[in-house]
Design a protein that fits this description.
Elements lengths: L20 H8 L3 E5 L2 E4 L1 H20 L3 E2 L5 E3 H7 L1 H5 L4 E4 L5 E4 L4 H11 L8 E10 L14 E11 L2 H21 L6 E4 L10 E7 L5 E6 L5 E3 L21 E4 L6 H8 L7 E8 L2 E8 L6 H8 L4 E3 L2 H7 L15 E4 L10 E3 L5 E4 L3 H4 L9 E3 L19 E16 L1 H6 L2 E3 L5 E3 L1 E8 H10 L4 E2 L2 E2 L10 E5 L4 H16 L4 E4 L5 H11 L3 E5 L1 H4 L3 E6 L6 E4 L3 H14 L2
Parallel strand pairs: 3-7, 15-17, 17-20, 27-28, 27-29
Antiparallel strand pairs: 1-2, 4-6, 5-6, 7-8, 8-24, 9-10, 10-21, 11-12, 11-21, 13-19, 14-15, 14-16, 18-19, 21-24, 22-23, 25-26, 29-30, 30-31
Helix pairs in contact: 1-12, 2-6, 2-12
Length: 581
């Protein structure tokens, strides 16, 4: 491609709306253009990178015996209602109404559509296992899209779905996809990823792993044992054994304090002159229609997934304020000693014999010197108070391996996610297959997603993905492998550059010829900004000795090579780079 025939609108200044490096450089290098909040057009360079990433994904999916399909971006809302995901996604689901008054959803993922497709054509266990995948645009109505393509409302995803008659088959294909993901990220150059245990979220399922690239600007919080034998995201991370003591002596008489308008732990702490580690945060939930109370320390965050698991509930929701007040809960001022018959789940760090302040179960009031034994245990049955890990893990917590390891917190960007879905969707949509005894059996499923856009941004966010000059693309996904920069595109320089361009094209190299009528300095800056791995400079001075300059984007030094050897030398460097990716 000749630069003059493409559209590469580079910018010198950092756009004011861009905060993180990937967003800044994708705009400055002319990869994307913002159309609206959270939606972007991919310009020629950006789309070439996207296509190269998608080519790698397709090669590895095909090698893993997955078959490509293509499904519509829009689906009837009834499909999501059958699985309950219209509720799970809530306001993040884009819903529109067609001219006939029928509600349609822009798909965040395609579990329902693919399950219906499978059910229409596959009837026997003999046709299993089967893995189908697509690369398609997805939609989520993010309340606050930000960070460019890292958190957008429209994005490109590879989603694959596998179908099985038994757990053994599901486990084998899950591992095959897991391994394929490792190869995909390695080939794309994003090879410093961490694989962590994860929650399945609104997609559902049991076993689940995320592929996370550590990065300070990432929105995912991950915790890893300093012994290197455990990693999980904050939603899934377990905490090691912690002692607890509910039966200790009271630190004083229960003292009520007037705390009008105190809506947060910080507000309460200021009025009561109590620090967060000595406050109890008490929350009211409904678990399968029954009231439950959850208590964590004031400086900790409740983990709803853990609470749901502890209660054994199939449905756990935060209590409706009006219903809870009618039942007797003083919402906003709830303490563990509630005047309502219910079960109370307490995190071990909150289940300690120490000074505590908490809600008074009376509007605009809190209490000091709450004591578990005196104020709660002496008034309820033994099975009404359960101590369980119900909070988010944090920096410094003991590793769940209970081997002396300590959890360390970091941030990262989620690149991919694999799930064992089980029969959630086949049950909801009534999809079965016949087994060897010709009996209808529920279908087990796996789900495997990759955020294509995020691979681009994650690479740029990584330490080796950029420098002060711009992007540094790896050879495998660079928009072009070589840029030919002409000092002045005319006469002998033009003829030499054109000949080298034709030779590289004939050798199968992705090459960009900078034939613009611009100063050499502008061309060099643009070549660095867009991040092409190899630059060949053709100028009068070098041609006097029949040489051109070859420089790698990551190298401080350039080498002079004979003009006739330049193409072969570039090809050798490209092959070497691709071999190591």
């Amino acid at each position: 491609m000749r630069w003059s025939n493409s559209m590469i609108p580079t910018l010198r200044e950092v756009p004011s709306e861009a905060v993180v490096p990937s967003h800044q450089l994708m705009l400055r290098a002319g990869l994307i253009q913002q159309v609206a909040a959270g939606t972007y057009s991919y310009l020629p360079l950006g789309w070439r990178v996207m296509q190269k990433v998608m080519d790698i994904i397709r090669e590895e999916m095909n090698a893993a015996e997955a078959v490509e399909v293509f499904m519509p971006a829009m689906q009837p809302i009834e499909s999501l209602e059958r699985s309950g995901r219209n509720v799970d996604y809530g306001d993040n689901l884009f819903v529109l109404t067609d001219r006939h008054g029928r509600a349609q959803a822009l798909s965040p993922t395609h579990e329902e559509v693919i399950t219906d497709m499978f059910g229409a054509f596959v009837k026997s266990y003999k046709q299993l296992p089967l893995t189908l995948y697509q690369i398609q645009t997805k939609f989520r109505d993010e309340f606050r899209p930000r960070f460019g393509v890292l958190r957008s409302r429209e994005f490109m995803m590879k989603d694959a779905y596998s179908f099985h008659i038994d757990e053994g088959s599901l486990g084998a294909v899950y591992q095959r996809q897991y391994d394929a993901y490792c190869r995909i990220f390695d080939r794309c150059g994003v090879d410093n990823y961490v694989i962590v245990e994860a929650e399945s979220g609104p997609i559902g399922g049991s076993a689940s792993h995320e592929f996370i690239m550590p990065c300070e600007t990432g929105e995912d919080v991950i915790l890893q044992s300093d012994k290197g034998n455990y990693a999980a995201n904050v939603e899934k991370c377990e905490i090691g054994e912690r002692g607890h003591e509910l039966a200790g002596e009271a630190t004083g008489e229960l003292e009520q304090v007037h705390t009008p308008g105190c809506a947060t732990i910080e507000d309460v702490g200021k009025i009561m002159k109590v620090k967060a580690p000595h406050l109890l945060k008490t929350m009211v939930y409904e678990a399968d229609g029954s009231w439950v109370v959850a208590v964590v320390r004031g400086d900790h965050e409740l983990n709803e997934g853990k609470l749901k698991e502890a209660t054994g509930a199939s449905v756990l929701v935060m209590a409706d304020e009006a219903r809870a007040k009618e039942a007797g809960f003083a919402i906003g001022f709830v303490g563990p000693h509630v005047p309502v018959s219910c079960k109370t789940y307490v995190d071990p760090d909150a289940a300690q014999a120490q000074f505590w302040a908490c809600g008074a179960n009376e509007a605009d009031h809190h209490v000091k010197h709450f004591n578990w034994q005196r104020d709660l245990l002496d008034h309820v049955d033994d099975d009404c108070v359960i101590v369980a890990d119900i909070r988010n893990a944090a920096e410094g917590d003991p590793s769940p391996k209970n081997d002396g390891g300590v959890l360390r917190e970091s941030r990262g960007i989620e690149l991919g996610h694999v799930f064992k879905l089980g029969s959630k969707y086949s049950d909801a949509l009534g999809v079965t297959v016949l087994d060897e005894q010709q009996q209808a059996r529920p279908v087990l499923m796996g789900c495997y997603g990759i955020g294509v856009n995020r691979i681009l941004a994650a690479w740029i966010e990584s330490d080796h993905g950029r420098d002060e000059g711009g992007i540094i693309w790896p050879m495998a996904i660079a928009p072009y492998q070589v840029v030919i920069t002409t000092i002045k595109y005319e006469g002998e320089v033009q003829a030499a550059a054109d000949a080298l361009y034709d030779e590289l094209l004939a050798a199968g190299v992705d090459v960009l010829l900078d034939d613009r009528d611009e100063r050499a300095g502008v061309k060099f800056k643009d070549a660095d900004l867009i991040g092409i791995p190899l630059r060949i400079t053709v100028g009068d001075r070098g041609l006097k000795s029949d040489e051109v300059e070859l420089k790698a984007r990551t190298s401080e030094d350039a080498e002079m090579v004979a003009r006739g050897d330049a193409a072969a030398r570039a090809v050798a460097l490209i092959e070497e780079a691709l071999k190591t990716s």
